[in-house]
Amino acid sequence: MSGITARPEGVRLDRCDLFLDYVGHIWDPGDVTMTRTGKRATKEQRAAYEYLGSRGDSLALWVRSTGPIDAYESHLPVEVHAPLEWLSFAIASRQLSRATALAIYHRLVTQLGGSITTERVVTADERILRGAGLSHRKARAIREVAEHADDGLLDPDKLAAMSDTEIQTKLVAVAGIGPSTAQMFMMRYLRRPDIFPAGDLAVRSAITTFDRLDRRITPKAAEQRSEPWRPYRSYATAYLWGYVWELHHTDEGAGMDSSFVRARPKPTAGRSVEAGS
Fold first, then answer.
1. Number of structural domains the chain divides into
2. For residues 101 and 93, what is the distance between their CA atoms, to the nearest angstrom?
3. DSSP annotation of 271
4. One pLDDT digit (tens) per residue for the chain, 277 residues
């Protein structure tokens, strides 16, 4: 059993009164050797829980009531095994419904002969890529990603040797990949523990609600706010997303003040893709 069983000293409870009634009956998460999905918590998951739960801020209260989580879970039902597959799905699914994105991705795999590889993408006629349902811009972006294989972006071993900053810098230099896609790639595919998507609307909305701000926090301010959560900002992000989901999908959360919060799909198990722009 974790030593985290009581409210942190010095926390201004008035700053998070909107959810104290809800978390009050589950303050002690029980067996913190297990995640909420019933899996045994890893050493990293327990360490992130202990660390974030002891920060003495409003997020810490939510962390302590939730217990350990898997920060790398995703909600999209497509398995990927290589960086190019992940990035191709991220690009193909942008601004599309889940069903449409999945259909296009499966057609793309079929059009390329059963798998998405660097050689097949680079040598494929654009009509083949467009035939899967991709727009000209998305087809061009996927091809450009494949053409950057020499940068090490598609080599798991080379990626493992790069810092978070180096990976993001290389990715956003590719047409069609923005900061959000780069951050989700590092968090969901590479499973990096200290990624923080400061521009994410749900993240910013949750911070705004927790800290009782008058206006939604800006990306720059959110980045600064995340500093105390290093080196587990991927976990802090997942806890913030979890709060938003609970707020919109439980009876307890239905009556809370949600003026600054918008729903985000609840993550489920699996090494899947969560795409951004």
1. 2
2. 4
3. S
4. 343 333 344 434 343 444 544 544 444 555 677 777 778 899 999 999 999 999 999 899 899 988 999 999 876 567 788 999 999 999 999 899 989 999 999 999 999 999 999 999 999 999 999 999 999 999 999 999 999 888 899 999 999 999 999 999 999 999 889 999 999 999 999 999 999 999 999 999 999 999 999 999 999 999 999 999 999 999 999 999 999 988 876 544 444 343 333 333 343 333 434 444 4
Contact 41, 34 (CB under 8 A): yes
3-state class of 256 per DSSP? coil
Residue with tokens 């000293």: 9
**Alpha helices, DSSP H only, in the chain?**
17-24, 43-52, 58-66, 83-92, 98-111, 118-123, 126-130, 136-147, 156-160, 164-172, 179-184, 201-210, 219-225, 233-249, 251-254
**Domain of 237: which CATH number?**
1.10.1670.40
CATH number of the domain within which 144 lies: 1.10.340.30
Q: What is the largest CA-CA distance in the chain?
A: 63
Residues 218 and 147 in one domain: no
Residue 53, domain extent: 13-70+195-254
**Which amino acid would we find at residue 101?**
A
